[in-house]
Design brief:
GO molecular function: DNA binding; DNA-binding transcription factor activity
InterPro entries: GntR_C, TF_FadR/GntR_C, Tscrpt_reg_HTH_GntR, WH-like_DNA-bd_sf, WH_DNA-bd_sf
CATH architecture of the largest domain: Up-down Bundle
Helix content: 55-70%
Domain HTH gntR-type: 17-87
CATH class of the largest domain: Mainly Alpha
Strand content: under 5%
Keywords: DNA-binding, Transcription, Transcription regulation
Bound molecules: zinc ion
Distance between the termini: 10 Å
Organism: marine sediment metagenome
Length: 279
Amino acid sequence: MTQAPASKTVSASRRRPKLAELISDDIKRWIAAESLGEGDRLPNEKALMELYGSAKATVREALKILEVEGLITLKTGPKGGAVINQPGMEPASRMLRNFLHFQQLDGKQVYQLRKLLEVELAVSVVGRLIENDFQQLEANMSACACCGGEEDHRRQRFLELEFHQLLARACPNPLLAFMCQFLNDMLRDLVVIKKAYVPERKQFDHANQDYHRQLVEAYRAEDTQRVRNIMAEHMADAEHHMSALETEMAAQMLFSGDSLHTHHHRSKLHDLPTEHVSV
Ligand SMILES: [Zn+2]
């Protein structure tokens, strides 16, 4: 049975939540109400089964949902159980990629956002960088300047994006930091998968290095207006240099950043005899 895919314009139909989802939602309410934090434990499986009057499989499914969302870690053994985690950005990033995979996102749309957000982020970091941050930014710039030749171009693109990730780590607004890191991760993944090349890349690399150097100077001087101007110019320039490959981004959204580094672009499902694949 093949089902026609739902139209992109129609949001997912409102289905009735499964019991396990109701339980996982209820556990979240409890975590929030009790202000539970990293390392706190949930009641054991047996207690949850009694509390919700549910089968073991249902409670396990509810816990699994929380684990996939990054809210808990499930530990086995006599001292095991569900321990609360503070999720990193990975689960949120994965969900957002799943969503974007089916949208026709292109590089122009990414830069429409990046141009605004990177500038806001850059400004938010003025006066917050400590000496250790400056050292990391300068080490990044030195590494960037050392790159030469064809092979190094990828590395240079990574380093260029890493410079922006370093700034994001100092951002006091976690939402702004997340959005910028997410955009940078998408651009970084493009370099890995599609080997995105910028035609006049030498010129582009030099321009980037120059912008970074000027930014660090402006940060040292804590000159907010200059930081704003330089980052705005840097992003406008980066958009201008955006390669043709970066204009079609949607296809690789489903891969997580981690799986990219294994260079396994081929799915095991490709090995399946065609009669098992219904399209
Ligand atoms: Zn840059």
